[in-house]
């Protein structure tokens, strides 16, 4: 290890992984295979806020770019680069306190659910098992629980943050309130490195999982009917509609699946109403048993895999969680349900995909909005809708990858007239102009003030970060 990295290593409780080290291949990779060609100068696994501060000071003194990473799920690869990857995945403790839950920024959704099982308390978590709290909560936090309990960032009461000058600050309603405001939905990698959040938990209800599937030929009717069903009232919990195709010979289908906060008979009646609205009988319909919150959420995230198995392959001896292939995506937030004409155009775009592996996804959002003042600007959004396309063959031609990118550009053009904004945790490189306004809307001017105050030298920057 070069002398300068040794000097940092002596200051850390954590460790530094460099090119040539045994664990470097795992350490440098994100969840998405697309960014495997990026080779950071070092991955610094921080275990304390002091580690983070020392790493920032070291990077600044050496003119090294800092790339902050918690779960490594950034769709645009914003948590890696050629400089230092500052990784907080080992700051992952979960502690129940008086009225709150303390979450390390590296805590992954499935681990938080597991630790809190049996406590009677739970938190808002991501829709993928290994999404970590750092990025998830900083960007707003839309999850399976959002329709019933709101977004995750509304429940943040305080945060421990390492600032650009290496200082450790605790922001709350009484101390650094403008920084806390920005961290509630202003996006990760902008203002500092969060090492711990203190969040207000939710009382863990009993849940029922459900899934209902129709033939792809009625996808437009199902999409519009589902949106009407979601907005008509009643507590159906959180749900999404997805039109996937995950095999070259696999028949596509349209699915509605989610969780219900109540007894099975309640969702059975609600699904009867959905079927009536859709006007056609489904191919399959399943409603699970009423089970503890942590059990149902684990099934949604991990299926039959254990907690240890559900982690990304390479992270532990039992871990076998998959990584995502090379992807392109386009997502937008919608304030209104799509019209039949818009549904038709959306599905026609899906049909033209140059890759068999793609999906059209629509997640019901909304839910309680009476939380504290925050930088999350999309209170009018009812749905998060978007496309994702994947290429598993990393040896595919440059022309094929170009076709995939062109298709994603076209998908974004379909979504744009329907959109009220864009969700920063589902970032899209397709938004080449006006991305800051799309993500932050009316919160943008104040966010720029907070950025200038806490990171005037732009230490925390990436392709879609705010500039002081």
From TrEMBL:
<keyword id="KW-0285">Flavoprotein</keyword>
<dbReference type="InterPro" id="IPR016167">
    <property type="entry name" value="FAD-bd_PCMH_sub1"/>
</dbReference>
<dbReference type="InterPro" id="IPR050416">
    <property type="entry name" value="FAD-linked_Oxidoreductase"/>
</dbReference>
<dbReference type="Pfam" id="PF08031">
    <property type="entry name" value="BBE"/>
</dbReference>
<dbReference type="InterPro" id="IPR036318">
    <property type="entry name" value="FAD-bd_PCMH-like_sf"/>
</dbReference>
<protein>
    <submittedName>
        <fullName>FAD/FMN-containing dehydrogenase</fullName>
    </submittedName>
</protein>
<feature type="domain" description="FAD-binding PCMH-type">
    <location>
        <begin position="36"/>
        <end position="204"/>
    </location>
</feature>
<dbReference type="InterPro" id="IPR006094">
    <property type="entry name" value="Oxid_FAD_bind_N"/>
</dbReference>
<dbReference type="GO" id="GO:0071949">
    <property type="term" value="F:FAD binding"/>
</dbReference>
<dbReference type="InterPro" id="IPR006093">
    <property type="entry name" value="Oxy_OxRdtase_FAD_BS"/>
</dbReference>
<dbReference type="GO" id="GO:0016491">
    <property type="term" value="F:oxidoreductase activity"/>
</dbReference>
<dbReference type="InterPro" id="IPR016169">
    <property type="entry name" value="FAD-bd_PCMH_sub2"/>
</dbReference>
<dbReference type="Pfam" id="PF01565">
    <property type="entry name" value="FAD_binding_4"/>
</dbReference>
<dbReference type="InterPro" id="IPR012951">
    <property type="entry name" value="BBE"/>
</dbReference>
<comment type="similarity">
    <text>Belongs to the oxygen-dependent FAD-linked oxidoreductase family.</text>
</comment>
<dbReference type="InterPro" id="IPR016166">
    <property type="entry name" value="FAD-bd_PCMH"/>
</dbReference>
<keyword id="KW-0560">Oxidoreductase</keyword>
<keyword id="KW-0274">FAD</keyword>
